[in-house]
Amino acid sequence: MTIDDHIVFIVDDDERVREALSELLDSHGMRAIAFESAGDYVRADKPDVPACLILDIELPDINGLDLQTQIAGRDHPPIVFITGHGDIPSSVRAIKHGAVDFLTKPFSDADLMAAIHAAIAEDREKRSERAELDMLRRHYLDLTPREREVLPLVVSGLLNKQAAAELGISEVTLQIHRRNVMQKMAAASLADLVRIAERLEIPITHSRRVGGN
């Protein structure tokens, strides 16, 4: 991990904590940006790199748990909560809503760094998955209208003859469309195409008829 391929955001209203965390991260070769309020963090322009959000519970403008709820569903960094007023209900709520860890002050540097590394690794994986999904969506948009009709029939398990009859085209024409779909979707096999269709949530409305030829 290099200092330019990640970022750690710190949101804590205690300047001493912000400085201590920034120095700790710097000593580990990690880049950090600190904010004293949730509002400052939300409004800030953020680098588009894998990240972690170290978030205090008690903030001057909003509770950290409430901020977690507000940004849920968005592409936000995994959260590591830190607090001097930890309790079981808060920790359960935080973890239930996806926090990587919930650390009560004073916590060890080792525990914090382990949580940060886990959060950045998680964000890196999610970004990779989103990038792959975006690529699949672009590939799907490259299909012709007819090829988009062929795709769900192919992945449903229908034989070429059955799929051709469903669309009212010849089997040879169906095979041409099927080959084009495989190439444009960069599918190495039928199983791969099925996985892609599942990722794209393409509705499958047909199933292979028993005894079909």
Number of strands: 5
Distance between the termini: 55 Å
Main sheet: strand order: 2-1-3-4-5
What does the average pLDDT come to?
91
Morphology call: elongated
**Sheet with most strands:** 5 strands, parallel
Tell me what you see in this structure.
By secondary structure, the protein is an alpha/beta fold. Helix content is 52%, strand content 11%. It contains nine helices and five strands; from the N terminus they run E-H-E-H-E-H-E-H-E-H-H-H-H-H. The protein has helices spanning 15-27, 38-43, 64-70, 88-96, 109-141, 145-155, 160-167, 171-184, 190-199; strands at 7-11, 32-35, 51-56, 79-83, 101-104. The chain has a five-stranded parallel β-sheet, with helices on both faces. Helix 1 (15-27) links the parallel strand 1 and strand 2 (32-35). Helix 6 (145-155) crosses helix 8 and helix 7 (160-167) crosses helix 8 (171-184). The chain is elongated. Mean pLDDT is 91; it is low at 209-213.
